[in-house]
Protein backbone atom coordinates (compact mmCIF):
# COMPACT_ATOMS: atom_id res chain seq x y z
CA UNK A 1 0.00 0.00 0.00
CA UNK A 2 1.46 3.39 -0.96
CA UNK A 3 2.56 5.80 1.75
CA UNK A 4 -0.29 8.28 1.24
CA UNK A 5 -2.93 5.56 1.39
CA UNK A 6 -1.59 4.23 4.70
CA UNK A 7 -1.33 7.75 6.08
CA UNK A 8 -4.95 8.50 5.08
CA UNK A 9 -6.17 5.22 6.48
CA UNK A 10 -4.41 5.81 9.80
CA UNK A 11 -5.85 9.32 10.02
CA UNK A 12 -9.29 7.80 9.42
CA UNK A 13 -8.71 5.33 12.28
CA UNK A 14 -7.71 8.25 14.51
CA UNK A 15 -10.88 10.15 13.64
CA UNK A 16 -12.91 7.05 14.52
CA UNK A 17 -10.99 6.22 17.72
CA UNK A 18 -9.03 9.28 18.91
CA UNK A 19 -8.52 7.77 22.39
CA UNK A 20 -6.75 4.67 21.04
CA UNK A 21 -3.01 5.35 21.41
CA UNK A 22 -2.10 2.62 18.91
CA UNK A 23 -3.67 4.61 16.07
CA UNK A 24 -1.56 7.67 16.91
CA UNK A 25 1.53 5.49 17.37
CA UNK A 26 1.04 3.79 14.00
CA UNK A 27 0.70 7.18 12.30
CA UNK A 28 3.88 8.47 13.96
CA UNK A 29 5.78 5.38 12.77
CA UNK A 30 4.42 5.89 9.28
CA UNK A 31 5.53 9.54 9.23
CA UNK A 32 8.95 9.29 10.87
CA UNK A 33 10.84 8.55 7.64
CA UNK A 34 9.33 11.18 5.31
CA UNK A 35 7.84 13.69 7.76
CA UNK A 36 9.95 13.50 10.94
CA UNK A 37 8.77 16.84 12.34
CA UNK A 38 5.15 15.72 12.06
CA UNK A 39 6.04 12.38 13.66
CA UNK A 40 7.77 14.29 16.48
CA UNK A 41 4.58 16.21 17.23
CA UNK A 42 2.57 12.99 17.36
CA UNK A 43 5.10 11.27 19.62
CA UNK A 44 5.01 14.30 21.93
CA UNK A 45 1.20 14.10 21.97
CA UNK A 46 1.39 10.39 22.82
CA UNK A 47 3.88 10.98 25.63
CA UNK A 48 1.65 13.67 27.10
CA UNK A 49 -1.82 12.19 26.57
CA UNK A 50 -1.03 8.47 26.82
CA UNK A 51 1.98 8.31 29.18
CA UNK A 52 1.36 4.62 30.01
CA UNK A 53 1.60 3.51 26.36
CA UNK A 54 5.01 1.90 26.59
CA UNK A 55 5.85 1.32 22.87
CA UNK A 56 6.01 5.08 22.32
CA UNK A 57 9.15 5.60 24.38
CA UNK A 58 11.57 3.51 22.35
CA UNK A 59 10.54 4.91 18.95
CA UNK A 60 10.13 8.49 20.17
CA UNK A 61 13.57 8.51 21.79
CA UNK A 62 15.16 7.29 18.55
CA UNK A 63 13.36 9.95 16.53
CA UNK A 64 14.33 12.71 18.97
CA UNK A 65 17.95 11.51 18.77
CA UNK A 66 17.86 11.51 14.96
CA UNK A 67 16.59 15.11 15.04
CA UNK A 68 19.46 16.13 17.32
CA UNK A 69 17.19 16.60 20.34
CA UNK A 70 19.54 14.82 22.72
CA UNK A 71 18.03 16.10 25.98
CA UNK A 72 14.55 15.11 24.85
CA UNK A 73 15.81 11.70 23.69
CA UNK A 74 17.62 11.10 26.99
CA UNK A 75 14.57 12.07 29.05
CA UNK A 76 12.33 9.84 26.90
CA UNK A 77 14.62 6.82 27.31
CA UNK A 78 14.75 7.37 31.08
CA UNK A 79 10.97 7.76 31.38
CA UNK A 80 10.46 4.65 29.24
CA UNK A 81 12.81 2.60 31.43
CA UNK A 82 10.95 3.80 34.53
CA UNK A 83 7.56 2.96 33.01
CA UNK A 84 8.72 -0.48 31.84
CA UNK A 85 10.03 -1.12 35.35
CA UNK A 86 6.70 -0.09 36.91
CA UNK A 87 4.85 -2.30 34.39
CA UNK A 88 7.33 -5.14 35.08
CA UNK A 89 7.90 -5.62 31.34
CA UNK A 90 11.30 -7.33 31.35
CA UNK A 91 11.66 -7.41 27.56
CA UNK A 92 10.96 -3.68 27.27
CA UNK A 93 13.30 -2.89 30.17
CA UNK A 94 16.12 -4.76 28.45
CA UNK A 95 15.44 -3.22 25.02
CA UNK A 96 15.20 0.30 26.40
CA UNK A 97 18.30 -0.04 28.58
CA UNK A 98 20.34 -1.42 25.67
CA UNK A 99 19.15 1.34 23.35
CA UNK A 100 19.83 3.95 26.04
CA UNK A 101 23.38 2.67 26.59
CA UNK A 102 24.01 2.83 22.83
CA UNK A 103 22.53 6.33 22.70
CA UNK A 104 24.81 7.50 25.53
CA UNK A 105 27.86 5.90 23.88
CA UNK A 106 27.11 7.23 20.38
CA UNK A 107 26.56 10.73 21.69
CA UNK A 108 29.59 10.59 24.00
CA UNK A 109 27.48 11.17 27.10
CA UNK A 110 29.06 9.92 30.30
CA UNK A 111 26.31 8.31 32.31
CA UNK A 112 25.41 4.92 33.59
CA UNK A 113 21.97 3.45 34.10
What is the gist of this entry?
The chain is mostly helical. The chain has helices at 3-16, 21-31, 36-49, 55-66, 70-86, 90-106.
Give the secondary structure arrangement, pairings included:
Layout: H1 3-16, H2 21-31, H3 36-49, H4 55-66, H5 70-86, H6 90-106
Helix pairs in contact: 1-2, 2-3, 3-4, 4-5, 4-6, 5-6
What features would you highlight for this structure?
113 residues; mainly alpha; 6 helices; globular
What does this structure look like?
With 113 residues, the chain is mostly helical. It contains six helices and no strands. The chain has helices spanning 3-16, 21-31, 36-49, 55-66, 70-86, 90-106. Helix 1 (3-16) packs antiparallel against helix 2 and helix 4 (55-66) runs antiparallel to helix 5. The longest helix has 17 residues, at 70-86. The termini are far apart. The model has no long low-confidence stretch (mean pLDDT 94).
Tell me the distance between the termini: 41 Å
The general outline is globular
Going by helix content, strand content and strand pairing, the class is mainly alpha
Major β-sheet profile: none
Give the quaternary arrangement of the chains: single chain
Give the helix tally.
Answer: 6
Would you count the extended β strands for me?
0
Helix content: over 70%
- Low-confidence stretches are none
Amino acid sequence: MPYLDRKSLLKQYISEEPKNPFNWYALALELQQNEPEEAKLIFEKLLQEFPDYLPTYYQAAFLFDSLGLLDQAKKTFEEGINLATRQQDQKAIKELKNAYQNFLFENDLDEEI
